[in-house]
Amino acid sequence: MNAVWWYTQRITGAALLLLLIAHFWVEHFVSENLLRGDLTYAAIRARIATPAWQAIDIAFLLIALLHGLSGLRSILLDFSRIGRNGARIFTAALIVVGAVWAYWGIEAFRNLR
Amino acid sequence: MNDLLRKYRWQFSGMVAHLIQRITGLLLLVYLFLHVRTVHALAEGPAAFDHAVSTFSNPFFKLLEIALLGAVILHALNGVRITLLDLGLAHNRQRQLFWAWSIGVGAVIFLAGAIPMFLFAVLK
User: Fold this and answer.
1) How far off is chain B from A85, nearest CA to CA, in Å?
2) Domain of B97?
3) pLDDT tens digit sequence for A99-109
4) CATH number of the domain enclosing A71
5) What whole-number distance in Å separates Cα of residue B40 and Cα of residue B18?
6) Is residue B94 part of a domain?
7) How many contacts does A have with B, using Cβ atoms within 8 A?
8) Nearest CA to B97 among B7, B3, B10, B5?
9) Closest CA–CA distance from residue A40 to any residue of chain B (Å)
10) By residue range, what is the domain housing residue A29?
11) What pTM was estimated for this model as a whole?
């Protein structure tokens, strides 16, 4: 089971590197406004009103949460002696946190048409 | 004695890299929380979103953005290094890889971003 976590961390890490470079590019370099750092609603809406970009952004968030929270899990399991049951409870708690966090992020798109 | 020193150095650099990865990882997770919190203002409309973003236009937050760039670069390059080592590639070069890649290449990319950010955003 730990091997699955280990592989997941490497694969999501590689995916995040590519997604982050793309994210950085589209949010800061593609237009004059964005180059000046004017991250206004109008500038951003033009991109994220399209379903394809929403899908990419949502995938980005989910992969980042998977990577970040499983990293947090590794840190806590390394530093604390919480035992097998403690680890299970902690993992379950992180899954709940991840689900709420993901919903919170996706919900940001609810009023875009 | 020489072997012992070499082994110690190997562990030293690996341990530093490991620690950097975890500290920057935690910081990036905190940033992701703040980022989603800001982006969430999109749901409340243009005025709310532009207000939320305007918080970050002062020089203090611009400095934090430069620090964020540094954390991202360190975490990403060091993550690539760890993945290469895990795949059994370059494991006898892990120390050189840390200094030349994670720190050396990282510093070049960081300065390429940080200098313009400092000149055009912090000092603006």
Assistant:
1) 24
2) 2-31+57-122
3) 999 999 999 99
4) 1.20.1300
5) 33
6) yes
7) 69
8) B10
9) 6
10) 2-109
11) 0.91
